[in-house]
Write a structure and sequence with these properties.
This protein is of the alpha/beta class. Helices cover 60% and strands 10% of the residues. The strands form two sheets. It has a five-stranded parallel β-sheet with strand order 4-5-6-3-7, with helices on both faces. Strands 1-2 form a two-stranded antiparallel sheet.
Length: 320
């Protein structure tokens, strides 16, 4: 379980460690240069003295002396750079010239950190799911032609919706999506494609099968494990509940599901839910309150067609 906070903490650690390694390498070369070039230490002393003299001259208003001191400082700095260049001591090359690898620009997290965070979350998600296999490009609409033109049209429209969802994603106002339909029709595939796209844009989702998510919440509540998981589900950029209806259902899980759905609706944070259940089955299983929230607050999309997994299995095993 990796939360948004932990993701950014790890991203900053990666950023910091990379800068430390670069600084250490340069300091090693710098120390060697100082050992063979006493002039470098002399220049540092002279620059320090000029700095003190500049402060006094500036306070006294002696502009002519300030100009001379600054000219001398520039000359000494140029001499020092020339010696370091001769000794092959390079300046640190920052991965991000915008923040100089500090991770912040104007008090805000730099985009370079967001990109690292995206890689962190992708690596974590790949341990849980086949993220590389579930792309928009890999969603083959040809499998939906076998159930008539209507199925292909419907699934073409849903694929377009998912792509547009990623392109315009905003954790403050993107709509909630409800994917419904029989097993094997690509609900999880497109859900994971959305997750990948959202992560690529620097946002941090919280994804999991319903069974896993409610287990996390239950363990946090009753055993103290997985602290922060429930809050992360409430506050993440995008919450994704996969395979709703496959989890063990009890009053606690129903209550937590309602709280997640209702709280994120109130805070206008987007959620994606996919399920094999019909709306009537959702109402029967979870109650009218949850069904009502889904009907009123989610863009529901019914997946139709012939089980794609079965089609692929038959293709792979034809002639056996």
């Amino acid at each position: 379980m990796i939360t948004k906070e932990l993701t950014y903490k790890k991203a900053f650690e990666i950023k910091s460690n990379t800068l430390k390694e670069k600084t250490a390498r340069r300091n090693m070369l710098l120390n060697a240069a100082y050992a063979t070039n006493p002039r470098l230490a002399d220049i540092d002393v002279e620059l320090s003295q000029i700095g003190a003299q500049l402060a006094i001259a500036s306070l006294s208003g002696n502009s002519e002396k300030v100009a001379v001191l600054r000219k001398n400082s520039v000359a000494l700095s140029k001499e020092k750079r020339a010696i370091l260049k001769k000794e092959a001591v390079p300046e640190i090359e920052y991965d991000c010239p915008i923040c100089n690898d500090s991770g912040y620009v104007g008090g805000k997290i730099c985009d370079c950190v967001k990109k690292i965070a995206a890689r962190v979350i992708v690596d974590e998600l790949k341990t849980q799911m086949p993220l590389d296999d579930c792309t928009f490009e890999g969603f083959d609409l040809n499998y939906y032609s076998k159930d008539g033109e209507n199925a292909r049209k419907r699934m073409t429209a849903i694929l377009k919706l998912c792509k547009e969802y990623v392109n315009s994603f905003n954790p403050q106002n993107s709509q909630n999506l409800l994917f419904m339909g029989a097993p094997g029709l690509g609900k999880t595939h497109l859900t994971l494609a959305i997750v990948s796209g959202v992560v690529d844009k620097g946002f941090i989702p919280f994804y999991g099968p319903a069974e896993n998510l409610f287990t996390l919440i239950s363990n946090e509540r009753f055993t103290g494990e997985n602290k922060g998981s429930y809050q992360s589900m409430l506050s993440c950029d995008l919450l994704v509940i996969d395979d709703l209806g496959t989890e063990y259902s009890n009053e606690f899980s129903k209550s937590m599901l309602y709280n997640l759905i209702n709280s994120r609706l109130l805070s206008k944070k987007p959620t994606i839910i996919n399920t094999n259940l019909t709306m009537k089955e959702i109402a029967d299983r979870y109650g009218e309150r949850i069904a009502s929230r889904l009907i009123g607050g989610y863009n529901a999309n019914k997946f139709i067609g012939v089980d794609v997994r079965q089609q692929k299995f038959l293709e792979e095993n034809r002639g056996i």
